Amino acid sequence: MSACRRMFYLVKHRSLLTYVRRNLTTWSPVGAAFNARPHRKLDLLQKNVGLFGVPELSCPAGFQVATETALKNTERLVEKACSSSPGVQTVQCFDQLSDELCKVADLADFIKVAHPDPAFREAAEKTCIEIGTVVEKLNTNVELCKSLKNLLDNPDIEAQLDPDTRRVADLFMFDFEISGIHLDDALRKEAVALHVKLLDLNNEFLVGSHMPNRIARSAIPEHLHLNFATEGSFIQIGGLHADSPNDLVREIAYRIYLYPNAELMGCLEELLKCRYKLATLVGYESFGHRALKGTMAKTPETVMSFLQLLTDKLSDRTAKDFKMMRDMKKKLSPRHSELMPWDHPYLSGVLRAERYNIEPSLYSPYLSLGSCMEGLNNLFSQLYGVSLMSEQPRAGEVWSEDVRKLAVVHETEGLLGYIYCDFFHRQDKPHQDCHFTIRGGRQCQETGQYQLPVVVLMLSLPHPTKGAPTLLTPGMMENLFHEMGHAMHSMLGRTRYQHVTGTRCATDFAEVPSILMEYFATDYRVISQFARHYETGQPLPESMVARLCESKKVCGAADTQLQIFYAVLDQIYHSEPQNRSTTEILKDMQQKFYGLPYAPNTAWQLRFSHLIGYGAKYYSYLMSRAVASMVWKQCFIEDPLNREMGERYRREMLAHGGAKEPMLMVEGMLQRRPTIGDFVDALVSELNPNFETFIMDSEG
């Protein structure tokens, strides 16, 4: 970006300074933009620029046009890759080919779940299917694979490749190999058929895992009917009601919602068999071995060692946590004092509330959405020299009028990319917090320009009211910081290849930047810069932040052990066939890695939707948290606003996306190579009192 254009950004956005709430609180431009109710000027002469500024996407039919254009360009690039001499240009051509498809497919993948107009959602869904089919064909295109193999099999040419190009070439080759490209025609066809079958099974299981269960109204005591949705003569149960103070309501919900569905059970069993068969067909010991290639853990054996060691180190604390819960249950329900799985979430919450007064409504007035965005802006400015600048979207650029657009601008590098903030609840919008890559960053050889990354952050926050801006609970605020960690990973990466841009990296590394942001979100030195009452301007008391941090350690070992159980279950399901049902495996693993009794005639695994997107990788959250904890304690706990450390973090971890081995990035940041024991110790030490030494010195 030119110096003139950067200056225009600064002048344009400084002029937005706004006073809200009777001038008692003054917000920065980005804070004011998020605390104000959205207002769009109606300009009938303004041209519809299309979703995300893509001209074709001004109407649903435009998806077909965008798809056809992408497929034409794909054909041209395939021909170019197959006819060119092997060299760096081969990998560049592959990346451009990937970019052509991803720019349309990733955008469509988001629109199919987020757009309020069914016509747009349907058109986007068709695009996803069409491009997905093309990708499958490309992954089994022998001539295309040969052009890459000619490069990697030539020692002289391979030696000339820089590390990033070599890694990207290897990643493209891995995509070919897991599709069975190296097999003979008959086996390759079998691999393709298995892959197609798995797409259907994945979708069937994902849909089924979220479907509610029904039971006759007469089967449930009448005085409890009000706790559940009714449908004629049936009670419909679509969740676990884990926060209900009534232990009978929790038990009923648990037993009914988790009641085995024979059809879905068959789907899961078949899905796991097909995954194993496909993995072994293309040369791996198991699906787990295939899934973990290129990750920090590398093998299922390492994952299981990590989970077993963590279990051993937590065992005494976990036993104490369960004893506290049992004692609390005896106190609350003397006649039903056995601790069951449906009690864990509720009782751990009761124990936290009893020990620390952390009622969310006490915190929310200090955590307006605008103040939190201002806090993020301040944090990024101090760590990276980056500002978040609110921009007015053009006509047709966004899918809902309450979507905000942020330009991410570096003080010397200029515009880095765009973040679209789809933060507010609306009908038919998925109730989940997530980050979507719409367009990846890459160096465009054809233009000499850098293709700027574009992402969407999706939350489900309440709308502002006439009397107050959107007020966040501490949990909502942490989720906002978490998702913004993903966004900044996308923005601050400056990879040459979009195939490894931002969050396109190993799953067990991808959550490190987002989890690290949670530590900033609970450090008073960071919070004190933005958390102030939306009416009075008073700062959030330090003692309240201290209570919040300490409360998280209550039953922390039991909470972690539950995640270990899920991760172990995922590993066992994706190992060699067990010759026993998924329910028998669950009962066994629940006894060994959790401890609370299995409830007969339940099948929790049928609600384990993470088996689809995180198959054999559910452990990733625990390992990422261990790395984030180590980075925080070693690099940021002394001074969370240290610019030098922020620049080092960007240079060593954020800048590379997936272009560097994940453990090498961790090693670069920590200046040493951590062991599995180090990861375990990092997680265990978080449960110690006074872990946040700076915060814990405060009163209360």
UniProtKB/TrEMBL annotation:
* EC number from the UniProt entry: 3.4.24.59
Single Gene Ontology BP annotation: peptide metabolic process
Needed cofactors: Zn(2+)
Q: Which domain of life is it from?
A: Eukaryota
Reaction catalysed by this enzyme: Release of an N-terminal octapeptide as second stage of processing of some proteins imported into the mitochondrion
Q: What is its main location?
A: mitochondrion
Q: Name one Pfam family in it.
A: Peptidase_M3
Q: Where in the cell is it found?
A: Mitochondrion matrix
Could you give the cofactor binding note from the entry? Binds 1 zinc ion.
Q: TM segments?
A: none
Subunit and partners: Monomer.
Entry protein name? Mitochondrial intermediate peptidase
Please spell out the taxonomic lineage of the organism that makes this protein: Eukaryota, Metazoa, Chordata, Craniata, Vertebrata
